């Protein structure tokens, strides 16, 4: 079984969260409370349960607030912080944090979404194919809000369709990635760059793969989806 204790996880937590501002006006969106807990704690729980022991939070807007709230440890996970001096996008944030990563590949995750998938199986699939970059995909009833990922039977990603395009069920990018450090080092060290818009389309046809997961997916990018998150996570049974 693949060993996630050797893998650095990077959580992308630098977004401005403008679409969520009316519901969460006073904090970074990864700190938006779901069932009384900051959303990011559900991601950190998932990492800890999968065996991850080292995480880097890539922060920007309200980065110090994130550090003060989360601290430097969550269970068995030791946490570092990489603070953007100015917005650099999801790709730019990973390039900035590259010196802090202690593994190849890196497990990167969007901080405002969650996919209930087996991360060990995801890593094993990635390793078996000697992939340099693998996206975790999940199937949703309507891809319109997310954009669609077209993938071959062998997992090769053929192309991406923009948000608002094809409607109906299909595979989407679930915001969880295994990315080789060689590819990350090719991202320009300065300027704004998005994984979804600038990097992944350029890697298509060059070994970019998609792992199809049956895991349920939620994001808190909009007020509507944030409200749905309360029903997504089961009540937490805290041990006294």
CATH-defined fold name: Spore Coat Polysaccharide Biosynthesis Protein SpsA, Chain A
**Count of beta strands:** 14
Radius of gyration (Å): 17 Å
**Mean pLDDT reading:** 92
Structural class assignment = alpha/beta
**Helix residue percentage:** 25-40%
Tally of alpha and pi helices: 7
CATH level-4 homologous superfamily: Spore Coat Polysaccharide Biosynthesis Protein SpsA, Chain A
Strand content: 25-35%
Order of helices and strands: EEEHEHEEHEEHEEEEHHEEH
Top CATH class: Alpha Beta
End-to-end CA span: 32 Å
Indicate the overall shape: globular
Low-confidence blocks of residues: none
Q: In the CATH hierarchy, what is the architecture at level 2? A: Alpha-Beta Complex
Domains counted in the coordinates: how many? Answer: 1
Characterize the main sheet: 8 strands, mixed
Strand order in the sheet with the most strands = 5-6-4-1-7-12-9-13
Give the SSE map.
Layout: E1 8-13, E2 33-34, E3 37-38, H1 40-50, E4 54-59, H2 63-70, E5 73-74, E6 77-83, H3 89-97, E7 106-110, E8 113-115, H4 119-128, E9 133-140, E10 148-151, E11 157-161, E12 170-179, H5 181-185, H6 195-203, E13 208-213, E14 217-219, H7 223-232
Parallel strand pairs: 1-4, 1-7, 4-6, 9-13
Antiparallel strand pairs: 2-3, 5-6, 7-12, 8-14, 9-12, 10-11
Helix pairs in contact: 3-6
